[in-house]
Amino acid sequence: MSLYMDVHHLDGPVSVDEVSKAHAADLEKQDEHGVHYLRYWVDESAGKIFCLVDAPDPEAANKVHREAHGLVADEIHLVVEGL
Asked: What's the mean pLDDT in 4-30?
């Protein structure tokens, strides 16, 4: 498994409550794909969402998003956690 940070660029503002609901939907689907969504951050006014995910590959991470709520990431970056 690898650690990824995915980034969503929305066309307008988004509320943390909306993202919380989408994250809950991800959690319901993630086990089917061997994925674990760990945390997320939201820039509400800029409409940006950042998700930290442990996944076998970027495609599996996006598949969970697609099936859970349809909002796939615009970018997915392989990351290493620092101390």
From this structure: 97
Q: Regarding the domain with residue range 2-78, which homologous superfamily does it belong to in the CATH classification?
A: ORF SCO4226, nickel-binding ferredoxin-like monomer (3.30.70.3090)
Q: Write the single-letter amino acid at 65.
A: H
Query: Model confidence at 41, in pLDDT bands (50, 70, 90)?
Result: very high
- Report the pLDDT value the prediction gives residue 76, as an integer from 0 to 100: 98
Whether 49 and 7 have beta carbons less than 8 Å apart is answered as yes
